[in-house]
Amino acid sequence: MQGLTTRYQLAWREIFRFIGALFLGLRDRADPLFLDAIKVIERMRGTGGFEGKAEADEVIGAAITGVGPAAVLKVLPLNLENQGYYWPMDTVNNRSGNPGRAWMLPILKASVKNTQLGHFSSYFVPLSEQLYQRVLVSEKNKGKTMEVKILETVIEQIWALLPTYCDLPTDLMKVFPLFGFVDILDFQSTVCRAFSKCLVPTSQFTTYRVSRFDKLDRKEHSIVADESR
After folding, report:
1. CA–CA separation, 115 vs 167, rounded Å?
2. What does the alpha-carbon distance between residue 44 and residue 6 come to, in Å, rounded to a whole number?
3. Cβ(131)–Cβ(159) below 8 Å
4. How far is it, in rounded angstroms, from Cα 163 to Cα 117?
5. Could you tell me the end-to-end alpha-carbon distance of the chain, in angstroms, rounded to an integer?
6. Which of 103, 115, 214, 224 has the fewest CB atoms inside 10 Å of its own CB, making it the most exposed?
7. How far apart are CA 9 and CA 226, in angstroms?
């Protein structure tokens, strides 16, 4: 952590790249050892005048790819449930004072891969439903306000994550039967396109490290791919 102090400010970009490489190299083994560094970098990112936002976002993206979105969102929660939505979208939660992190949604979309599809079902689907209910209530009471438009944008960004969660998920056979959840009609086509990514040629699974799948997982994924032919 000492390298992230102002004493080493001139070397921050190089330190960020090094930390990102650690996440990509160590993957699951970087949790929880290096997650504290992500919290520090996120605080630095939110500091006024900080010029390394792009590099900070790359480190956060590397952490999402390496240890998975579930681990990163435990230390950097999105805090979108009770937030007052104004532009820009990373505003402060009016009730708890916790920072909203809608800015992480594009980073998640670019970084999530080969992870647990069940995390989308358990984390993002309930979040999307909460925000959608707020849209319905706000439209009924106030009409199509700016807050409603921003909420709709956030919901769209949430569902845009599903195809990335379907990029060789590690728990497909376990989770797939649970996906009878699509109540928001606008996103049924997104769900269909996302699930089509799960049906990939069996040979593609050999390009991933065996440590990411046990023998049973790889056998089940192969069955799904064979049946899709």
Report:
1. 8
2. 10
3. no
4. 10
5. 50
6. 214
7. 53
